[in-house]
Design brief:
This protein has 382 residues and is of the alpha+beta class. It contains twelve helices and 13 strands. A hairpin with a 2-residue loop joins strand 7 and strand 8.
C-alpha cells in the first residue's frame, strides 16, 4: 500500500500505524510519488516512530482526569493512554458523529469531548469529565485551544521538516497561538495558496471559527436557567462584576437601579399541588417579569428569587414600570382560577446612590432588604 497508493493516485499519502520489520517498532509513514519529466520513477517515504506522536498526546492533560487519544477514520482506537490500542477497540459511542462537541457516557461517567481531524486522516480527541468543568468555561476553552495549537504545531513540524519550508508558517501560526491564548479570536491568516501550507493555514482559520461557535454555545449553557430560560445566578454575578468595572471607570457617575423579586408561597404550592405546579408558578412569574421589563436583563438568582437590573430608558421610567408590574400581578390574581397561575410576589427596588453605595453589591443588598421588608408587610397585612 505504501508504494501502490501514491503511484496510483499521484498524491502523497499517510499510512496508518504499523510495526516495521526493519526496526521492530510501531511507526507511521509519509510516502510521496516521485516523477521525472512527467514519468513516475518511484516513491520516497519516511517512517516516523509512533512514540513521537504519542509522547505529545500523553502530555495533554486537562483538569484532574482529562486526557487525549487518537482514533482512525474507521472508528478504531489508534492510541489511548488508558487502553491497549493494539487490540483495535472501537472509540466510545458518540465520538464518531459529525458533531465537533460531543457529550457522552463512558463507564458510567458523563464526559464532554472535542475533536479535530489530522492531516493523516486520524482524529485527535480531547475529553474531560463534565463534573470537572462546572462552569469554568474559559479555562476549558483555553485548554482546548492550547491542545489544538500544540497538535497542529507538532504535525506542521513533522510534515514541513521534510520539505525545508518550516520557518515562515510556524512563525505565523505561533503568533496566531499567542493571540488565541490571549483571548483574541479575531485573527486573520493569509490563504497561502493551494499547497500544503495553505491547507494547514485554512485548517487553523476553520478551527478559530469553530471555537467562536463553541464559546457562544458554552456560554449559553453556562449562563441559562434551565427552567425559565432567563439568565441564571452565574450570569448575574458576571453581570454585576462587569458593572463594578464600569462603575469604577465612571468614578461613580452611573445611573441604575436593581429590583429584587421573591415569589410568595412557592413551598405551599409545591406541598399542596406538586412540584410541577410549582414550576408552572415560577414560569408564570418569570413571564410576567420579562413582559413588563422587556428592555432589562432578568435573572433567576435562586429557587424563587429573580433580579432585574434597570438601566437607561427602563431606569428613567422605573416608577411607571413598577406600577405596571404591580397592576399586572394583581390582575393575574383576580383573573386566574389556579393558584399557580396567580403571580403573588414581594419586591424591593434600590436606586444607586454614590453617597451610600460603594459597590454594585451594596445596591443589591439594599434591594434585597427592601424586598424582605415588603414580604413581611404582605404577610402581616401592613
Amino acid at each position: 500500500m505504501w508504494f501502490t497508493v501514491p503511484r496510483a493516485t499521484g498524491r502523497s499519502v499517510w499510512q496508518p500505524p504499523y510495526i516495521t520489520e526493519t526496526l521492530g517498532a510501531r511507526v507511521i509513514s509519509y510516502n510521496v510519488p516521485v516523477y521525472w519529466n512527467d514519468r513516475f520513477i518511484g516513491v520516497v517515504g519516511i517512517e516516523i516512530n509512533f512514540s513521537v506522536l504519542t509522547d505529545q498526546v500523553d502530555h495533554i492533560r486537562l483538569y484532574g482526569h482529562g486526557y487525549a487519544f487518537i482514533n482512525g477514520s474507521e472508528g478504531k482506537l489508534i492510541y489511548h493512554p488508558l487502553l491497549d490500542e493494539t487490540a483495535n477497540p472501537p472509540a466510545p459511542d458518540g465520538l464518531l458523529s459529525g458533531d465537533k462537541l460531543v457529550r457522552y457516557q463512558y463507564e458510567g461517567v458523563e464526559k464532554l469531548a472535542v475533536w479535530m481531524p489530522l492531516n493523516n486522516g486520524m482524529r485527535l480527541n480531547v475529553t474531560v469529565p463534565v463534573s470537572e468543568i462546572n462552569g469554568n468555561w474559559q479555562q476549558l476553552i483555553r485548554a482546548m485551544i492550547a491542545v489544538s495549537v500544540i497538535v497542529l504545531a507538532v504535525f506542521i513540524l513533522l510534515t514541513y521538516h521534510l520539505t525545508g519550508r518550516i520557518t515562515n508558517p510556524l512563525q505565523k501560526l505561533t503568533e496566531a497561538a499567542r493571540q488565541l491564548d490571549a483571548g483574541n479570536y479575531n485573527i486573520a491568516l493569509s490563504d497561502g495558496g493551494n499547497d500544503e501550507v495553505g491547507v494547514l493555514t485554512r485548517a487553523v482559520s476553520h478551527l478559530v471559527e469553530h471555537l467562536k461557535k463553541y464559546i457562544s454555545g458554552l456560554n449559553d449553557l453556562a449562563y441559562a436557567d434551565s427552567l425559565t430560560s432567563v439568565r441564571n445566578r452565574g450570569a448575574f454575578d458576571a453581570f454585576v462584576r462587569n458593572m463594578e468595572g464600569e462603575l469604577l471607570e465612571a468614578k461613580g457617575q452611573k445611573e441604575f437601579a436593581i429590583c429584587m423579586i421573591d415569589c410568595n408561597d412557592l413551598k405551599v404550592i409545591n406541598d399542596r399541588s406538586g412540584h410541577e405546579k410549582g414550576d408552572l408558578y415560577l414560569k408564570a412569574a418569570c413571564s410576567l417579569v420579562c413582559h413588563v421589563f422587556v428592555h432589562s436583563p432578568v435573572f433567576r438568582i435562586g429557587g424563587d428569587e429573580f433580579a432585574v437590573i434597570l438601566q437607561k430608558s427602563d431606569y428613567e421610567h422605573r416608577d411607571e414600570l413598577l406600577a405596571r408590574f404591580d397592576e399586572a400581578c394583581a390582575e393575574s390574581r383576580s383573573r386566574e382560577a389556579d393558584v399557580w397561575n396567580q403571580v403573588n410576589v414581594a419586591r424591593g427596588v434600590a436606586v444607586y446612590d454614590p453617597a451610600i453605595d460603594g459597590t454594585v453589591n451594596d445596591v443589591v443588598r439594599r434591594a434585597d432588604k427592601l424586598m424582605y421588608e415588603n414580604k413581611w408587610q404582605m404577610k402581616h397585612g401592613g
